[in-house]
Amino acid sequence: MNKQEGDDIFYDDLLDRKQFITKKFAPCCSALLGRGRVLAVHAPFGYGKSKFAQYYKEYLNKENPLNKAIIIDAFLHDYIDDPFIAIHKSIGQLVDYDEEMNKLGGEMLKASAKEFFDAVPILRKTNLSNKLFEPSLECIIGQYIKKLEKLANDTPITIIIDELDRCRPDYAVCFLERIKHYFRPVPNILFILMINKDHLFQSIMYVYGIENKEDASNYFEKFLSYKIIELPLLSEEELKRKQSAEKESAFSYNMLRSKLQKLRKNNKEDEQSYEMFIETASAFLHALDLNYRYYEQVNLGIDIYQKILGKNQFFIKKTARLYAYLLVLSLGKPDIFKMLKEGQVDGHKSAYTLFNEIENKFYYYGNHSEIKDKESINKFFMDFKHVHYVAAEIENETKPCEYNGFIESNFLITYFEDFKPEPIRLKFQSWTNNIL
Which of 10, 210, 349, 381 would bridge with 18, disulfide CB 3.0–4.6 Å? Predict the structure, then answer.
């Protein structure tokens, strides 16, 4: 870890989460923590919920040393019978449990685990969750909570539950029930649920036999102390506006650029080839409206394919744009990529159709100062649109456009010895074989 990474929690914060955490989210959590509450943060899959959770945990531990925060990956624990195990053990990592506390935890687990799962078929017919707990269990819970309140009074605890929406439905609902009946409200213990609300609502509908999302939403809100917090991200409407388009393309560009800065320092190849790769990959990510998780996959792909190729074919002028295009295509449009890899005519037809659909997005990409050569990026994709057209042997259709001197251009000399359908398809098979 370099000095920058060690000193700054937000060293790789390309979505400006620091601003949201410090100005809004942290004050909100502080207000809820003392009361012992439950908060939910929503974003679609792939939009950085886990990264946001990590930022906030590290920020809280650094800014408030007396407070303790921990992240529980619910999905990693859904093979066990009862989510209380994960919660109990995680709190124990932050505050020291004595023998009595561990004994109470064991008694709660023994008394409650079977009751919930035996009750699930009944719950699907009627909401009887408040009848799950017998007086003996309520007594154990009361003792446990009193001990926990004393510990939390000295060490306020924030428990972030991540990946809850990926769990099997009965486990996800059981997790919610455990928080509600065991830990709410416990002063100085705050639960933060990182969720995709639409997917979690599906789990609730399945377990309780609810037929619409509105009823599932009403059920879920019973667990919360405040409204669901929407994690800031760019909507489809915002993407249509120039300012948001600039922000989106800037993000993809900067994320890849930060990844490749170290590679540039460690290699003597022309820096221009790195920029060609970054700009082309980020332009295609932007044009396909791929979410933030895909940018991480491109980063991983760079590491993987450098090892596969054994040399920096990704970062030489001749192939930088080509491999950037194919890598993103393999992640964002795997069906098209597979057909190209198999030499299918339909793969080139689909690629040509795709470029027709997203063509305008290349014109709007790069409207910020860091992108130096957006005209070359646009020309690259339009040239490959023409290539796919030829390889697809499309008949009775107007050609995409005629380029002056296209057949004699440096573009063809660079990539193709014979600009005919079959040789083009064979060339794509050769290129795509370098990519999983």
Answer: 10
Residues of the chain with pLDDT > 70: what percent?
A: 75
Amino acid at 21: I
- Angstrom distance (rounded) from CA 322 to CA 273: 11
Tokens of 305: 């394919």
Pick from 3, 328, 49: nearest CA to 163: 49
Q: Cα–Cα distance between 357 and 339 in angstroms, integer?
A: 19
Tokens read off for 13: 């914060």
Sheet holding 157-162, edge to edge: 68-73, 157-162, 189-195, 38-42, 229-230
- pLDDT confidence band for 244 (50 / 70 / 90): very low
Could you tell me which of 133, 191, 182 has the C-alpha nearest to residue 161?
191
Q: Given this model, what pLDDT does residue 429 score? A: 92
Q: Which residues pair with 229 in a beta bridge?
A: 41
Residue type, 336: I
Cα(286)–Cα(389) distance, rounded to whole angstroms? Answer: 23
> Given this model, what pLDDT does residue 406 score?
47
| Spatial distance between the Cα atoms of 312 and 256, rounded to a whole number of angstroms | 16
Q: Is 222 exposed, middle or buried (0-12, 13-18, 19+ CB in 10 A)?
A: exposed
235 is written with which tokens? 């909507």
Q: Which residues are CB-neighbours of 376 under 8 A, at least 6 positions away?
A: 276
Query: Which residue ranges form the domains of the chain, and what is each CATH number?
Result: 3-230 (3.40.50.300), 236-432 (no CATH)
In contact, 171 and 212? CB cutoff 8 Å: no
Task: Return the minimum-mean-pLDDT range out of 86-95, 200-209, 361-370.
Answer: 361-370
Apex 314 CA angle, 250 and 50, nearest 5:
45
Distance between start and end Cα atoms, the chain: 30
Please write the tens of the pLDDT for every residue from 117-156. 454 443 444 343 444 445 577 788 888 888 888 889 889 9
User: What is the crossing angle of helices 169-178 and 99-123, to 10°?
Assistant: 130
Structure tokens at 398: 């107007």
Position 70, amino acid: I
